[in-house]
């Protein structure tokens, strides 16, 4: 609504003008605060990282020397090619399997869709390190499949450690993302197009190629970009099954942790960041061209039963789910086996974590606390800023900048956030033009606070988009009416907006919790000896060769996440009954 | 929306508690490269004698601890370094990061296991040495003989069956490489490593991982160290520890006081304790060579004359050439990137 409209409303109301002025100024100030906050937690740390990559170890500016050095070192620069190769392969596998799977869920009449979807999403709850570990137990020298289930079947020996292992692990990791995106894309179909195709006598293949595929092209592009970025920046899987096949993410870790070479770490981070940023921008540009597929007159497509097709699809979908379930069941089994593969008696010995590095149960407790705090802080911050950006009139330039800044973290790999935070928050201060400026955020370094902050930022954009979508569904009339009645916006926010958006808010909270539990990349540079974390413990135990306890700790993470998922399911059901009755007629 | 505001309040309080932390008077930060399963056993002894001191441990592989410690040169975090390779401490000493300190009972410490200066800049507690962890079951299944020497590891039948720690991150890896270079001379030493490289399936982050991989049958032979193999066997893994015929590479695990603006008295208490008789007896239960004689029998699995197993090791040479050796090693073998 243009500025003049709100002025007219203001004039019409009987409230003194000063009160409204105050409100407008509050909103303006809050919006500025949103921009400022994103600058401090995203832009400034990133700028610090960039400047480090252009300086030598003593902080002297050296231009692109570090990058030249990087590309002249064959063992380092080979990693870029490796990263690209495994990510492209992963993307191809995930998107095609994900497309077929989502097609089965949305366009066929197979039974048990809800169950299949739930099972397919399991990898979302697991640290990627676990994907690597489970692969070792399946395809390693003593793996279940390598050994043909302890000799019961003929074995299959593959060269797991290297690109194959990484691609398999990343495919499991990115598959659910592809399924989620493509289910939405395939779910929005206009039956009238298919009727038209049928009446024109188009074959099934032709209909698929000329109606179905074009209608989901944006979804396909989006799924491809998401899978690519996730695989490109993941660190957990290549760490466990990469063997001697170096990729960018493990190089950053080796440079920073192994050699404390922060400058080279920054350089590799920039190399890692660039393709992610390009993918991010390309995806934004493509999505902007998307127009609403579903018009008011659209008729939802109801999948018609097709005996042979459904049977084949059911077999495929069930097989994929069986593979995923079997994958994690192997992990669970391995964590219970006493001495794999020599003593297969079961027990909880690996869950004791005594005499093992990483921090054991204390680390698990810390992770729970950190994830709960991240969920709380993240939900409040993302929802409130999404509200301000979505439900404020005027101030277009400010809103646009805030919106862009809020989407920026989507392009940032966790390792980059972690390293940038070391540089930014550990700096005692900066001298600008000879004036020493102490770092006001330095106190956060090596505390729980910086871990929570890193998580809030790492998972900010997706949560922000969820909130924005929910807010877009609310009629702007609520704001207009409240304003004309002189109700302050914060009251409308608490009394109307929040309750109506509770399902989305719960979803955001769950998303934050689950991801904070599972993530390694951002926090591995930031945790301190006082605050060991479960996911980092998995990485450290793997480094020490304690793979069974590492597997056990991963299982605890998955267990906690599944509990939260179940709680979320119960809570949404309750909330929907109480607050969403209005959506039904 | 009372619920929401209460939740918010709770969040703020929780965050404040988490951020603030509680300062304790007697708290020291200890960097160590001792094995994860050793540390709690020793610290239990410490807690009994000094319940008033809280010990915070940062533990990682030798190379990581060394790099971390050196990187903090301008603002050292640790109060004490405990059980970390003498060659690493000599580097830190060169950088001027160690405060000379003579712990109580220094007179009992064997001469070759401490810094020669008085007061010493570092004091050893025990020696650890190269040992091959060999999975007896897998070796039998693959019809391979048990390797008895470094030379044996070059045999073509072991191709792809051996793992070895990366010397840049692992102290065990470094002492083994350094021993080979000293035993054979540099030229022949690198030639040996080139050939060994052909047989290595994987270079690992830590010195214990090759042994644990051997124990799990993932790779039947792991170049590791004595203690690790003996522990894995105790856990029920089919691991035999072989001490190579040519002699074992070795290093001293040593302690040092960190030079900082304010040195805590508790740090010195810890260093006194760390070479004292109570904990020395604990070291001797699992390590055959301790810096103070304990009279304890040689732990099972080690050679009867452990000192005779050690190669001649010039620590000064090793410390001085560490950076160069690691760089050369990385140049030659780190790019083992393409799967063969």
State the gist of this model.
By secondary structure, chain A is mostly helical. Chain A is built from 25 helices and four strands. In chain A, helix 2 (17-53) packs across helix 18, helix 6 packs across helix 8 (163-187) and helix 16 (360-390) runs antiparallel to helix 23.
3D architecture notes:
The complex is a heterodimer of chains A (585) and B (340). With 585 residues, chain A is mainly alpha-helical. Chain A has 25 helices and four strands. Chain A has helices at 3-12, 17-53, 65-72, 74-107, 113-120, 128-139, 148-151, 163-187, 191-199, 204-215, 217-233, 236-241, 248-258, 262-288, 307-336, 360-390, 396-407, 414-426, 448-458, 460-472, 477-484, 489-500, 502-518, 534-544, 547-579, and strands spanning 337-339, 343-346, 429-432, 435-438. Chain A has a two-stranded antiparallel ribbon with strand order 1-2. Chain A starts with a helix and ends in a 6-residue tail after the last helix. Chain B is α/β, with parallel strands linked by helices and 340 residues long. Chain B contains 13 helices and ten strands. In chain B, strands 1, 2, 3, 4, 5, 6, 7, 8, 9 and 10 form a ten-stranded mixed beta sheet that branches. In chain B, helix 2 packs antiparallel against helix 11, helix 3 (62-71) packs parallel to helix 4 and helix 6 (171-184) crosses helix 7 (186-199). The radius of gyration of chain B is 22 Å and the shape is globular. At the A-B interface, helix 4, helix 16, helix 19, helix 22 and helix 24 of A face helix 1, strand 2, helix 3, strand 7 and helix 8 of B.
């Amino acid at each position: 609504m243009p500025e003049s409209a709100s002025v007219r409303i203001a004039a019409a109301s009987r409230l003194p003008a000063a009160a409204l002025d105050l409100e407008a100024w509050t909103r303006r100030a809050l919006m500025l605060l949103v921009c400022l906050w994103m600058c401090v937690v995203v832009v400034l740390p990133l700028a610090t990282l960039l400047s480090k990559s252009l300086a030598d170890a003593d902080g002297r500016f050296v231009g692109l020397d570090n990058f030249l050095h990087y590309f002249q070192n064959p063992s380092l620069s080979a990693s870029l090619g490796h990263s690209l190769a495994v990510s492209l392969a992963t993307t191809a596998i995930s998107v095609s399997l994900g497309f077929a799977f989502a097609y089965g869920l949305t366009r066929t009449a197979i039974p048990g869709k809800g169950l299949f979807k739930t099972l397919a999403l399991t990898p979302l709850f697991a640290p990627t390190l676990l994907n690597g570990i489970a692969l070792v137990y399946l395809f390693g020298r003593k793996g279940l499949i390598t050994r043909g289930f302890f000799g019961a079947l003929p074995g299959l020996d593959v060269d797991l450690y290297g690109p194959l292992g990484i691609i398999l692990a990343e495919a499991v990791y990115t598959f659910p993302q592809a399924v989620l995106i493509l289910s939405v894309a395939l779910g929005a179909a206009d039956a009238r197009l298919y009727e038209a195709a049928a009446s024109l006598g188009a074959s099934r293949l032709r209909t698929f190629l000329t109606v179905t595929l074009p209608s989901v092209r944006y979804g396909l592009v989006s799924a491809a970009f998401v899978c690519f970025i996730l695989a490109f920046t993941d660190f957990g899987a290549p760490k466990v099954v990469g063997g001697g096949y170096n990729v960018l993410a493990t190089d950053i870790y080796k440079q920073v942790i192994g050699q404390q070479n922060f400058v080279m770490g920054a350089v590799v981070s920039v190399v890692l960041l660039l393709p992610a940023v390009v993918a991010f921008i390309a995806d934004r540009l493509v999505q902007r061209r998307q127009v609403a597929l579903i018009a008011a007159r659209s008729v939802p497509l109801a999948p018609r039963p097709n005996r042979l097709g459904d049977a084949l699809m059911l077999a495929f979908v069930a097989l994929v789910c069986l593979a995923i379930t079997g994958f994690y069941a192997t992990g669970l089994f391995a964590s219970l086996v006493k001495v794999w593969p020599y003593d297969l008696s079961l027990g909880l010995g690996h869950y004791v974590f005594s005499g093992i590095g990483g921090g054991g149960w204390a680390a698990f407790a810390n992770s729970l606390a950190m994830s709960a705090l991240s969920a709380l802080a993240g939900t409040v911050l993302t929802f409130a800023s999404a509200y301000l950006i979505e439900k404020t009139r005027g101030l277009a330039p400010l809103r646009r900048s805030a919106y862009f800044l809020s989407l920026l973290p989507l392009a940032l790999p966790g390792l980059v956030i972690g390293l940038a935070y070391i540089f930014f928050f550990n700096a005692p201060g900066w001298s600008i033009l000879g004036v020493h400026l102490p770092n006001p955020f330095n106190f956060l370094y090596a505390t729980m606070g910086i871990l929570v902050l890193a998580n809030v930022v790492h998972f900010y954009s997706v949560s922000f988009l969820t909130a924005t979508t929910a807010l877009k569904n609310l009629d702007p009339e609520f704001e207009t009416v409240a304003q004309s009645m002189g109700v302050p916006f914060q009251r409308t926010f608490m009394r109307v907006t929040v309750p109506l958006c509770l399902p989305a808010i719960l979803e955001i909270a769950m998303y934050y919790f689950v991801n904070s539990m599972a993530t390694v990349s951002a926090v591995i540079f930031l945790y301190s000896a006082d605050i060991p974390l479960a996911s980092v413990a998995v990485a450290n135990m793997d480094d020490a060769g304690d793979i069974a306890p590492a597997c056990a700790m991963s299982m605890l993470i998955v267990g906690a996440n599944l509990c939260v998922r179940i709680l979320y399911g119960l809570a949404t059901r309750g909330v929907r009954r109480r607050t969403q009755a209005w959506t039904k007629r | 929306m009372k619920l929401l505001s209460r939740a918010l309040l709770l969040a703020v309080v929780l965050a404040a508690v988490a951020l603030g932390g509680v300062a304790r008077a007697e708290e020291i930060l200890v960097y160590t490269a001792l094995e994860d399963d050793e540390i709690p056993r020793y610290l239990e002894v410490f807690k009994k004698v000094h319940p008033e001191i809280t010990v915070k441990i940062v533990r990682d592989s030798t190379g990581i601890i060394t790099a971390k410690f050196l990187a903090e040169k301008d603002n050292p975090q640790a109060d004490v370094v405990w059980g970390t390779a003498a060659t690493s401490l000599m580097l830190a000493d060169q950088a001027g990061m160690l405060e000379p300190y003579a712990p109580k009972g220094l007179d009992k410490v064997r001469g070759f296991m401490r810094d020669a200066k008085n007061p010493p800049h570092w004091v050893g507690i025990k020696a650890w040495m190269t040992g091959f962890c060999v999975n007896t079951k897998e070796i039998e299944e693959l019809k391979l003989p048990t390797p008895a020497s470094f030379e044996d590891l070059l045999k073509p039948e072991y191709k792809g069956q051996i793992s070895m720690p990366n010397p840049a991150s692992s102290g065990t890896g470094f002492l083994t490489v350094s021993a080979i270079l000293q035993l054979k001379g540099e030229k022949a030493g690198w030639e040996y490593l080139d050939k060994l490289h052909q047989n290595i399936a994987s270079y690992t982050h830590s010195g214990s991982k090759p042994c644990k991989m051997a124990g799990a049958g993932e790779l039947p032979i792991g170049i590791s160290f004595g203690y690790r193999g003996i522990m894995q066997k105790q856990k029920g893994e089919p691991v035999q520890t072989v001490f190579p015929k040519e002699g074992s590479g070795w290093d001293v695990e040593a302690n040092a006081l960190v030079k900082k603006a304010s040195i805590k008295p508790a740090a010195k208490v810890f260093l006194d304790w760390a070479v004292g008789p109570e904990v020395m007896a604990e070291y001797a239960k699992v390590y055959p060579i301790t810096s103070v004689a304990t009279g304890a029998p040689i732990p099972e699995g080690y050679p009867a004359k452990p000192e005779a197993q050690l190669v001649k090791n010039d620590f000064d040479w090793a410390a001085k050439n560490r950076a160069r050796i690691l760089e050369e090693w990385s140049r030659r073998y780190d790019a083992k990137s393409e799967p063969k």
